[in-house]
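User: Can you recover a sequence for this backbone? Please restate the input before giving your answer.

Assistant: Of course. Working from this structure:
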């Protein structure tokens, strides 16, 4: 990567995009009157597929990942990127996989059709 100012600028862009993804995804859940709690996907009452959910099936997690990437860019230590990678792997295995299982059971074909059109991350 380039110099310090470019790193900081890119870090700021990551933060901005993260905030947009997080805010829009949470507001989408609130508008749909469904749970935001990722530990209880079975309580979802509505499948939210509008807003940033047209770009990513997991915009909240993507926002969190972007914050970690922003931090790694900001401090400029390549080892700090390991945290972002570990977060992505852990989310895929321990959170997203189980969530997808519950959502596919709960929403059936509608959810499977959505999965066929929108990528897991981006």
């Amino acid at each position: 990567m380039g110099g310090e100012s470019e790193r900081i600028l890119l870090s700021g862009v990551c933060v901005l995009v993260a905030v947009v993804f997080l805010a829009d995804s949470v507001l989408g859940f609130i508008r749909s009157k469904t749970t935001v709690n990722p530990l209880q996907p079975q309580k979802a009452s509505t499948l939210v597929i509008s807003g940033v959910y047209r770009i990513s099936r997991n915009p909240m997690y993507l926002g969190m990942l972007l914050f970690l990437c922003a931090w790694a860019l900001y401090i400029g230590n390549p080892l700090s990127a390991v945290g972002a990678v570990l977060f992505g792997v852990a989310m895929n295995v321990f959170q997203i996989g189980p969530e997808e299982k519950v959502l596919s059971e709960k929403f059936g074909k509608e959810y499977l059709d959505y999965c066929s059109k929108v990528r897991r991350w981006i």
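That completes the design. The mean pLDDT is 95.
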